[in-house]
Every structure is written in C-alpha cells, then in structure tokens.
Automatic annotation (TrEMBL):
Segments forming domain HTH cro/C1-type: 18-73
Cited SMART domains: HTH_XRE
UniProt-recorded name of the protein: Helix-turn-helix transcriptional regulator
Family annotation (PROSITE patterns): HTH_CROC1
Native source organism of the sequence: Streptomyces poriferorum
InterPro entries hit by this protein: Cro/C1-type_HTH, DUF5753, Lambda_DNA-bd_dom_sf
Pfam families assigned to the protein according to its UniProt record, in alphabetical order: DUF5753, HTH_31
Length: 289
C-alpha cells in the first residue's frame, strides 16, 4: 500500500464529500435511503466514514445526486478504491480501535488528557504489557502481544525523523502513582516520560491532586488535528465496548476550551519534570528500602 494512502482518512474525506453532495441536492439521508432501497443507518455510516465505501455505492449515490461531471465521479470512485486498501495496522489482524489508529497515523497533532494511565504513545513496552494484562485478564498471550506490538508501532510517529506527530499530553498525578508492573517498571516508565518530554514536538504536563476539581474530571479524551484543512478535527473518547468520535465544530470547540483550562491548571513543563523525578525517586526508595 502506498505510504501516502490512509484508508481511514480516505473514508472520512469521501464521506464528507458525499454528505456535501446530498446537502447541495437538498435531500435527507432518509430520502436517499428510500431511493436506493437501503437503510438510513447505512447512508449515515457511509457519510461519517465509519465503514468502507464500495465503488458501486459511490456510483449509485452520484446517480441519485445527479452528478454530471465525469471528473468528480472518477475522483470519488478513486477515493472509494483507496479507502478499501489496508493500513499497516491490518497486518496485526483484528484491532478493535483500528479507526482511531488510522486517524492517529494521519494526524498532524494530538492533544490528550489521561487521568488513569500513561498515554499509549509514551509507554515503555514493559509498562504496556503490564497495563494490557491487567485490563484484559482473560485475553490469551497472543492477543496481549499483538496489542503491545501495535502500540510500539504507533510510537514511531513520536520518534520519526521527519514530520513527527506533535503531542501535548496532560497527565493526572494518579497515572504516575498507579503501580503498573512493579516499582522497577514504574521507575523506567517515569524516566522514559521525562526523556520524551525533552523532544521539541512533545509537551508533557502533570495535573497534581492538589489542583482539585478540573474540566477533565469526567475522564480521558484526545483531540486529533490534521494537516489537510479539508479534514475536520476529531475528539476521541475511548470506551469499553465502543468508542466515541466527535467531529461537529461545536463539540470540538467545547473540548478544546476544556483542554486549555487543563493546560492552565497543570504544572508547567519544568515543574512537571521535577514532579515526575520526585515520584521516580519515591519508587526507588521503596524498592531499596
């Protein structure tokens, strides 16, 4: 698969274009579904980019929308073809959060708030193994290894020599103090966190307990932004059985404002490094004491 083709992003762009054509035609998703003898939910899934779009789907929709420009139809058909290709993550088999990985792979920047654990892109392999084992106690070792390997591959975006992902992470103090994998694993994880925080495109801030209530009190979320202006920002909220993706401008704006408040309440970069070093030393004393 060509490195510049991301099937997840192609589906999003194609879905946005199909929605635009429908709105220009002045039709509702229900009306389109009735014309094509399909469910309204299928039209919605095609437009939000959450399912693959076949070239036949594109041809049928272009017919309903009376698209006469052959170049437009051909472009949409090519996007549909690209959207059915496989990303690097498909080599690992069925990954439940593959949609998110596709978005992250193409994102230019990522802002994440984590209240419970170290963000995945900043985890050591030992920490990731212990964390996933704890979260999925009934999963076979092969599944654990697959998830850890995918997480390690995702981290290539952080260390890439060209166009690395710009990452801003606000981490709650509880994530630093939760003993995952033992004291030595935590020491190495915290050292890794400080090390990565020195990269010019990585910013890490800690939100200590004594800050009290804050806008992120309801849980984890991430905001992904993309280099192409045609791709709207996405708020990602991870769930146990399903994930939530918010793309409406008002939703993204609301979470962005919340994030600005989190950044303002958190320790600054230098204070954060000292704070993390202090907790790492506590683990060292407990280990040797």
């Amino acid at each position: 698969m060509p490195s510049n083709v991301n099937p997840t992003v192609r589906r999003r762009r194609l879905g946005q274009e199909l929605r635009r054509l429908r709105e220009i035609k002045g039709m509702t998703a229900e009306e389109v579904a009735e014309r094509l003898l399909v469910s309204q939910s299928k039209i919605s899934r095609l437009e939000n980019g959450r399912r693959s779009i076949s070239q036949r789907d594109v041809r049928d929709l272009c017919g309903v929308y009376e698209v006469e420009d052959v170049r437009v139809v051909d472009s949409l058909m090519q996007m549909a073809k690209d959207s059915r290709q496989q990303g690097w993550w498909h080599a690992f088999g069925d990954i439940p959060y593959s949609v998110y990985i596709g978005l992250e792979t193409d994102a230019e920047s990522l802002r994440v708030y984590e209240p419970q654990v170290i963000p995945g892109l900043l985890q050591t392999r030992q920490y990731a193994e212990a964390l996933i084992n704890g979260a999925l106690p009934e999963a076979p070792p092969s599944d654990i290894d697959k998830r850890v390997s995918v997480r390690s591959r995702r981290q290539d975006r952080i260390t890439a020599p060209e166009h690395p992902l710009r990452l801003w992470a606000v981490i709650d103090e509880s994530a630093l103090r939760r003993l995952v994998g033992g004291k030595q694993v935590m020491i190495e994880q915290l050292e890794r966190l400080v090390e990565l925080s020195h990269l010019p495109h990585v910013t890490v801030q800690v939100l200590p307990f004594d800050m009290g209530a804050h806008p992120g009190i309801n849980g984890q979320y991430a905001i992904l932004e993309f280099p192409d202006a045609a791709d709207s920002s996405v708020v990602y909220i991870e769930g146990v059985t399903s994930d939530l993706y918010l793309e409406k401008a008002n939703d993204v704006q609301r979470y962005s404002v919340m994030y600005e408040h989190l950044r303002a309440q958190a320790l600054n970069v230098e204070q954060t490094r000292h704070f993390i070093d202090g907790i790492a030393k506590e683990y060292t004393r407990l280990k040797t004491g």
